[in-house]
Amino acid sequence: MEKTSELYILVAVSDDSERAAASLSELAELLETAGGKAVPEFVIQNLPHPDPATYLGSGKAKELIDRLEETEAVGIIADDELSPAQLRNLGDILECKVLDRTMLILDIFAAHARTGEGKIQVELAQLKYRASHLAGLGKAMSRLGGGIGTRGPGETKLESDRRAIVRRISSLKRDIKTMVAVRETTRKKREASAIPTVAIVGYTNAGKSTLLNRLTNAEVLAEDKLFATLDPTTRVYKMPDGQEILFTDTVGFINKLPHNLVDAFRSTLEEAGHADIILHVLDASDPEASMHSSVVYSTLADLKITGKPVITAFNKADRCEADRSLKDLNADKAVNISALTGEGIDALLGAISAVLKETRSCMEVTIPYSDAGLLASIRKFGQVVSEEYSEEGIRVKAYVPARMKGMFAE
Ligand SMILES: Nc1nc2c(ncn2[C@@H]2O[C@H](COP(=O)(O)OP(=O)(O)OP(=O)(O)O)[C@@H](O)[C@H]2O)c(=O)[nH]1
Ligand SMILES: [Mg+2]
Predict the structure, then answer these.
(1) Distance 207 CA to ligand 1 centre (A)
(2) Residue 4's pLDDT band (boundaries 50, 70, 90)?
(3) Which atom of ligand 1 is nearest to the CA of 211?
(4) CA quadruple 163, 167, 173, 175: dihedral positive or negative?
(5) For residue 11, which of 43, 124, 149, 364 is within the disulfide window of CB 3.0 to 4.6 Å?
(6) How confident is the model at residue 1 (pLDDT cuts 50, 70, 90)?
(7) How far is the CA of 265 from the centre of ligand 1 (A)?
(8) Is the distance from the beta carbon of residue 126 to the nearest atom of ligand 1 less than 6 Å?
(9) Which residue, by CA, sits nearest to atom 30 of ligand 1?
(10) Rounded to the nearest whole angstrom, what is the distance from the C-alpha of residue 226 to the centroid of ligand 1?
């Protein structure tokens, strides 16, 4: 990512200063991922709600003028999405760059999107944000210059002319329609193959890509950055008994994930809705783990992904205190793992295998020797419990997907 080394003061409004400080620490990580730097002292205003006109109270805003001068920061970043009025008024009072959490997340997404579809989805989300904040924002937008908050995917600078934005939005929407149709076809093909799928979901930086890499040598970029992964990657894993399972790594979730982005990635994330199992990866070593967990479940509910079996992997066990025991009441099964060292991976695979068994039905058939090839497909798509060789053929007992059972019934 293009380094800006722009320095910002991070601000929040909340009557829970501990929560606010934790959220601002995360905002500082986001800023670092975007290539900027945060002034170490955060500004937290103790109020139950932000001021509708200026976000911070006007007294606090005036104090900020001095802080900006002392620290030589180029601007401020608010921990919540600002309204057009708040953006304009703060800009007028402070005469500096004014950004919010949403713009920062969008900026990171723009820089990390790799595939054509990802880039289009991000640009669309950015332009929607711009369109809804342009009203009277000419000055505030121009103050941003060319840094964080103005960068589109692929080094393009974002449009700021309203009519151009509207035109671009409708052209992007058309492109997305075509791409979604293509992806649907691929997914249907995959479903027809009856290989079970596991969707890896979780808070950003939990270790989802590291886990996929450990299981399948997928060589997905995994790094200590927020939103390293945007585009879903699917890889096949062969269980020790020969059964194949597809694992899909997805974009991470975050607290206060901008609505435009949830919408933009809805169709990508909905793929998780077609999975047989949701594998929830949680960084158990993070003090905010339980907040992360509830963000994941509420985002899944937003995406209408409910009623699936969930396995939770408490990851980074290598970094956890021995007595740290987390619970996940939403999960059907939970396992402690370290995607980094490999600890607990066998137990995780065991849990997946057990849950798959529950989602499949038991079938007993005798396969004539002339059709012995069928046994190979049962092995591939299901789990063989026993096989006996008799005169009539091979007597097989196996757990298979419903579709396959239907096939044999014929
Ligand atoms: N100590 C330790 N670090 C881990 C473990 N698993 C992952 N990490 C580290 O955590 C960081 C994030 O890992 P990723 O796999 O990129 O996380 P992710 O969930 O894919 O994150 P995003 O794609 O950014 O949402 C990397 O620096 C990993 O090396 C683990 O079990 N133990
Ligand atoms: Mg990742």
Answers:
(1) 3
(2) low
(3) 15
(4) negative
(5) 43
(6) very low
(7) 21
(8) no
(9) 316
(10) 10
343 close to ligand 1 (CB < 6 Angstrom): no
Question: What number is the average pLDDT over the span 140-164?
Answer: 78
Q: How far apart are CA 126 and CA 107, in angstroms?
A: 8
Query: Which CATH superfamily hosts domain 7-163?
Result: GTPase HflX, N-terminal domain (3.40.50.11060)
pTM for this model (two decimals): 0.84
Name residues whose C-beta falls within 8 Å of residue 403's C-beta, 6 or more positions apart in sequence: 194
Q: Structural domain boundaries of the chain?
A: 7-163, 194-357, 360-409
Residue with tokens 């007597």: 395
Nearest protein Cα to ligand 1, atom 32 = 316
Cβ atoms of residues 351 and 336 within 8 Å: no
Q: Does 226 contact ligand 1 (Cβ within 6 A)? A: yes
Query: Is 234 strand, coil or helix?
Result: strand
Q: Is 194-357 a CATH 2.60.120.230 domain? A: no
Query: What length is written for the chain?
Result: 410
DSSP characters over 155-218: GPBPP-SHHHHHHHHHHHHHHHHHHHHHHHHHHHHHHHTT--EEEEEEBTTSSHHHHHHHHH--
